[in-house]
Amino acid sequence: MLGLILIFAIAxxxxxxxxxxxxxxxxxxxxxxxxxxxxxxxxxxxxxFYFNHRYDGLQLWDFRGITGLHEFVLALSAIAFIFLxxxxxxxxxxxxxQKPQVHLFETGITxxxxxxxxxxxxxxxxxxxxxxxxxxxxxxxxxxxxxxSFAVWHGDRRLFKRYGDEFLALKxxxxxxxxxxIAQGRQQLVLxxxxxxxxVGVAITVVLFRWLHPIVIxxxxxxxW
Length: 225
Hints:
GO terms for molecular function: 9,15,9'-tri-cis-zeta-carotene isomerase activity. The chain is an all-alpha fold.
């Protein structure tokens, strides 16, 4: 699993680092397509492997009999998706229908955390590791959070390289730690920014994933590695 995460990290962050030069040579749309064709299959492999081996290793704890834990894990997973949502903030650009661009986001969930994907992945890892309690799940969680922590540094570095002082000003108004910039008075939470169709899409996605979860688990079990 660590090897698979390392391969994904090298491909994902490596291609992100090459974005400026790649777009100059092959264009933004073709770069986005190549990025997706590389990253998405690797991510799918990761999830399938995780589903199939989630009970491997040592059983470090078993809290599944605790009343309310299942509901807590579901709620934490749902919140995780809300933070993971900005990864698809511009679906048209993700699909290369519109020309993909690099944005300095400072609305909605990004007011809470400048890198919501790190927070979302951390919450997802906490929820699933708490429920599974295996050494495999714990090792995977540590590796995923470690990579996303690196991605915070790497992402900030790329944004500074592209935007310079404009990014530094944004960095001063935001924080990676959720709600820290708001608590320190450097940022304000604007609730009306959450009233948009995209967040309805997030809610639908959460419900859909909950319904599809056992189907995905069973489908993954049919793929033997």
